[in-house]
Specification:
Blueprint: H1 5-18, H2 21-26, E1 28-35, H3 38-42, E2 48-49, H4 50-64, E3 67-78, E4 82-93, E5 96-109, E6 112-119, H5 122-128
Parallel strand pairs: 1-6
Antiparallel strand pairs: 1-2, 3-4, 4-5, 5-6
Length: 137
C-alpha cells in the first residue's frame, strides 16, 4: 500500500533523525533537490542534488552537527503534492547551538520526494506553498 504524501514526509523526518542515508534515499526521486541550512555551512550554499547529494547531506550533518533534531508538530497539504511541516529544529555543533522555529516545504511526485527546502519560520514555508497558517492536514 502506498504511503500518503504526509506519511512520506514523516518517514523522511525519521530518516533525518536516525541519520539513515539509505532510508532517506529510498524516499527520494533520483533527481531530488534539497535546500537545507546545512548547505549554507557545508556545501557553499548549493543545494544537495540527487541520491548522491542526499547521501552527502547525511555525511555533512554528521560532520557538522553533534546533534540535529527536526521536530515537526503540524503538517499541511497543498495542491501539486506539496506538504509543509512546521515546528522547531534543535541542533548543536560547529560552534553553534540552534533552538529555533522552522518550516519545511516538500514536493512529492509519484510517491517520492522531488524537492525539499527548509525555512527559518513556519510562515515562510506556508507562504511559499500558498497556504494560510492554521490549515492542518
Amino acid at each position: 500500500m502506498a504511503l500518503s504524501n504526509v506519511e512520506v514526509v514523516g518517514q523522511a523526518f525519521a530518516a533525518f533523525e536516525l541519520r539513515d542515508a539509505e532510508m532517506l534515499v529510498a524516499l527520494c526521486s533520483s533527481d531530488v533537490v534539497f535546500e537545507p541550512v546545512t548547505a549554507q555551512i557545508a556545501a557553499g550554499g548549493e543545494p544537495y542534488r540527487g541520491h548522491a547529494g542526499m547521501r552527502r547531506y547525511v555525511e555533512d550533518v554528521a560532520r557538522i552537527w553533534q546533534e540535529l533534531r527536526p521536530a515537526p508538530d503540524a503538517f499541511y497539504e497543498a495542491e501539486g503534492g506539496i506538504v509543509v511541516a512546521t515546528g522547531r529544529v534543535y541542533a548543536w555543533g560547529a560552534g553553534r547551538v540552534v533552538d529555533a522555529p522552522a518550516g519545511w516545504l516538500w514536493r512529492i511526485e509519484g510517491g517520492l520526494i522531488s524537492y525539499g527546502r527548509i525555512f527559518d519560520t513556519a510562515t515562510g514555508a506556508l507562504e511559499a506553498a500558498g497556504l494560510a497558517a492554521g490549515r492542518g492536514a
